[in-house]
Structures are given as C-alpha cells and as structure tokens.
Request: fold
Amino acid sequence: MSSVIVTRFAPSPTGLLHLGHAYSALFAFEAASRNGGRFVLRIEDIDFTRCRREFEVEILDDLAWLGIEWEPSVRRQSDHLHEYAAAAEQLRVRGLLYPCFCTRKDIQREIEAAGAAPHGPEGPLYPGLCRSLSADERHGRIANGESFAMRLDLNRALAEVDGDLEWNDLQRGPQKAQPEILGDVVLVRKDIGCSYHLAVVMDDGLQGITRITRGEDLFEATHVQRLLQSLLSLPTPEYHHHPLICDPEGKRLAKRDDAETLRSLRSRGISGRELRQRLEFG
Ligand code: GLU
Reply:
C-alpha cells in the first residue's frame, strides 16, 4: 500500500479568502509538499443559500497568487449531491436516521420547557422531540408535505460500533471520539438536502485524504465525523488541527471576523511571497 500523504484544502465559497484561510491552505499544501505528497482542492459549495460561483473563481485566483499548486481535478461538492443522498439513504435504511420536523422555534421552546438542556460545543443539544415519533406519525406528516431534516440517531449509531473510535491528532496526540458531545446531528438539512458532516466525510474518503489539516475550530466536528467514517466503512485519516492565527493584539482571526481579505492585501501591492513569509511558510 502506498504511504504517500494526501492533504486537502476545502474552502466554502461564501466570501473572499482572508489571512486565516491563507494560513490553512498553506499549512495543508506545505504538509504535502514537504513530505513528497499530494495536495487536492475541494470546493464545499453544498449550501446554495450562501455559496457563489464568483467567490470560487476568486478563491482559485488567490490560491494561485499564494503560490499554491493543486491537482487539476478539483472536486466541487454540488456536482456530487446524489452521492451524499445515497449515503444518507444507506444510513436511513439501517435505521440510523430519523426525520425531524422541528423548526428552530420548536427546539427552543422544548429546551425552555425542560428548563435545561445538555450543551455541546455548538450550543444546546437537540432535545430529541422527533426521535420517538411513531412510524405512522412520521409517514402522516411526510404525506402532509411537512418539511423535515434527517438526524442521526446517535444511540443506535453507537450501538453499531465495535470498540472505541479513535484518531491520531498531530497537534493534540491520540484522541478518543466522543460523538455524544454533538448529540443527534442533522445529516440531511431541510433546505439543502445534505450537510457539512456527511459531505466532508464522504469526500475525504473518496478523495483518499490521508491527513486532514484544518483549524482547531473544527476539532469538535471530528468527534462525529469519526463516527460517520465508521458507519460508512471509510478509512480514518490522521488529523492536524492547527492553532488559528491571531492578529497583533492576540485576537483570533476567526472565519467570520472582519479579517483582512487577500484581495485587499493584493490591492495594496503585497506579493504572495511576502505573505507566505509573514505567515512563516518561507
Ligand atoms: N468548508 C469548511 C470551511 O470552509 C472546511 C471544512 C473542513 O476543513 O473540514 O470552513
């Protein structure tokens, strides 16, 4: 078996790239090139409510300016929706997904009524309203045209797993997955018919990614993604959740901050080489 390392950068074209993205892209690219490996690019554009083709064009242009070279076959997720749907169907048939008709308001109301709810890294966990609906009730509501998402039935999913779910993280060392911190996550969104967790796990498997490098803001997502790898019989790559870069005041340049875009750096005459040096990628 080949041991060539394969890394990826997987931006969502919801806006222009900024310094945090540049760091993440260079991190993945360097990890591959330093080790004689392969680097692939994936456009994560399943969320048609937020993604725009113009941003994709700008992203490719910014990456080229940074001196990054990717393999010619760029995977665009919106071309593969049928594959994610097939994976979700496979999980549904195994009884691992259930339809959830809740609106955000329903969920909020239920949490308030309960007085308290277990919290995960992304907020309160889904309180399970739709988990226990009878088959008749589900069919009736679907037949009535109610819209629904599909959620992972975590307890059933965990019952299918033999032994511990682990991964190796080059930043934090060996990890044991605890998917319960995220609860019954949505794997098929009402609006887009897919979800980040499902698409990313499928694609990392299908593209043969051996090392996932990404910001530590996605560390928690790995708990459920590791479970999905096991349920879908996909290999487990190693991970490197790198620290997020900070501005000179030590404030994290999170993805949605008003961080400076590469476009504006470029318009000020800064070269890709200068930026690479500034981000300590020589
Ligand atoms: N598309 C995701 C983002 O731009 C990254 C997904 C990942 O690296 O797993 O935040």
Observations:
- The first helix runs from residue 19 to 34.
- The first strand starts at residue 6 and ends at 9.
- The two ends are 32 Å apart (CA to CA).
